[in-house]
Amino acid sequence: MANSQSEGQRAMKLESERTQIYEDIKKQKEKISKKRQEEIERGLASSTTKIVKKRKDKTVKAKLSFATNDEDEEEAVQLKSPESMLPEKKRKVTKNPNVDTSFLPDKEREETERREREFLKLEWLKQQDKIKEEKIMITYSYWDGSGHRTQVEVKKGNTIGQFLEACKQQWDEMRGINVDNLIYIKEDLIIPHHYTFYDFIVNKVRGKSGPLFAFDVHDDVRLVNDASIETEESHAGKVVQRGWYEKNKHIFPASRWEVFDSSKEFTKYTIKDTNAKK
């Protein structure tokens, strides 16, 4: 009986000691937790201050450890500044009104300029079409060894081939001849059929003795041994049959004729027959 009471008292004592131990551990944990919270708050305040000053994200680590029942418990707490969570605000860039920025890309300005260029292009094309419709009188000679001068009306936009088609309607000798078998010679140059009068007039193309087509004739130049003598004499072109040219191309004046070449410049010219016997 005495032993039973002794054991009961012992058990109660052990239970009391165990309870006391748990209470002490609990208090120790609370004390540690409170201390840890204070350290975290101090670390957070310090981190926030540094972030504001340096504009960098920093982290604060707090590591606490304590042991119970022969086991080590480790906790790591990583805190991040609330400011670092927010997207960094971009600094607003303002323009200096005194700086020339016309060289910088500008879609709106480029589109406006493109429309203006397109408008000017269309206006220019309309103007050129109007010029091509203008009528002109071309003086020429039907040449069969001697000249038979006359005129024909054409448009500036007509080709030399169309001009020859109009010419052959004026002569019985040419009506049955295909245009391909007719040649037009201006300033001793054989003009290919695909060129237009507009091409020569607008570009002021020069032949051997002056502009191929200058209707005011004041720019017409005939060179005698050099390029310094001007004359107001207008030179009529010649229309000849290809067969006649092939037979007589070694004889003056056909011996002087050559096919027009837009890349060639004429520096010297004489109206004399260089093949004539002295």
TrEMBL record:
GO CC aspect terms: nucleus
Any one Gene Ontology BP term: chromatin organization
Q: Where is this region: Disordered?
A: 29-52, 68-110
Which residues fall in a compositionally biased region of kind Basic and acidic residues? 29-42
**Highest rank taxon of the organism:** Eukaryota
Q: Name one Pfam family in it.
A: XAP5
Residue stretches making up the FAM50A/XAP5 C-terminal domain: 134-270
Report what the protein is called: Protein fam50a
Q: Which organism is it from?
A: Physocladia obscura
